[in-house]
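[Automated response] Your request has been received and processed.

Submitted sequence:
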Amino acid sequence: MKEKDDSIKKKVQEQFGKYAEKYVTSTTHSNGSDLALLPNWLKLKTESIVLDIATGGGHVVKAIAPYAAQVFATDLTLKMLETAKRHLEQTQTNVFYVIADAESLPFLDNTFDAVTCRIAPHHFSHPEEFVKEAARVLKQGGKFLLIDNVAPAEQELDDFVNKLEKLRDDSHVRSYSVKEWTKWLELAGLILLKAAPRKKTFTYPDWVRRTTTSEEQIKNVDSHVLSANEKIKGYFSIETTNGEIQSLTIDEWMVLAVKKHE
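Generated structure:
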């Protein structure tokens, strides 16, 4: 099991190390409408200390740092963290950068007023451990904000989107369901305060090339999408022109929870 976990984490490091700059500049990651919602959802106090897990391009940090006293940006991949720092350090002076595994955080219990994680847990092999760790390092009454791609409840749709993501990005582990996330939050002692199901539309040619490494890989992704039945094409709003895939839409979940007082 440990060898498998190590293999998954190595793939993540390779993927995000190789394409670090792409993740910083990606419109999907940098311009998502969810980023504008963060300050209002979190309602941080000026003395707040915040942890952003798997920070990637640092987009969450950029959105919340002006409202907090200190933000700790963590990532498993050194190059990703260095790239985020390079883009943020000119404007954000209250950010600290730490290499960290989301499933084994190097922080003491009850340290942070808020913990955030955006568009990353589908790369985690043990998301339930990640949620436990987020809850552990939160102060009582602290807030946990999660945003990630999620799988539809229906198995056929779940299978399609997870195979799609794996074909496109070998570091993808799984997009989990809202039901699974809700269970893990509850088990970690986190009380759900607010949630919003969202739809996220990708311009397919850009999206598929962000993580693929060969034309053959792109053809395999194309084939999977084009072979989908009408029900699947309808659910994911797959748009084609003359047999060329133009866009598709996947599910995302944004949720805010609070660590209950013991």
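Summary generated for your ticket: The first strand starts at residue 49 and ends at 53. The chain has a mean pLDDT of 91.
If you did not submit this request, please reply to this message.
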